[in-house]
Design a protein that fits this description.
The protein is an alpha+beta fold. Helices cover about 30% and strands about 25% of the residues. The longest helix has 17 residues, at about 15-30.
Length: about 100
């Protein structure tokens, strides 16, 4: 499996930002087996990067590699939605109940 490159844009160290980071780290460790690079970008500290990526809301996760580019907005608490958004879960796989 090729390494995934993920960028998480947050606004400051708020409870929502911290929750998104924790959720994403758990998903990455459990599902990507260490085959990922995670960059966390605080838009308050690096506004130009947020502008370059046209970030309108935070937290926003961008999967840059492998293609296609994907964006997920929110606290990343719905693991299945995140995996589907990152193309790590097949659209046809049944959801566990």
């Amino acid at each position: 499996m090729s390494e995934s490159v993920l960028k998480l844009f947050i606004t400051g160290h708020t409870p929502r930002s911290e929750q998104a980071i924790a959720n994403l780290r758990a998903i990455c460790e459990n599902e990507l087996g260490g085959q990922y690079e995670l960059v966390i970008i605080d838009v308050l500290e690096r506004p130009q990067l947020a502008e370059d990526e046209k970030i309108l809301a935070t937290p926003t996760l961008i999967k840059q590699l492998p293609p296609p580019l994907r964006r997920i907005i929110g606290d990343l608490s719905d693991k299945d939605k995140v995996l589907l958004g990152l193309d790590l879960l097949s659209h046809t796989e049944p959801k566990s109940k």
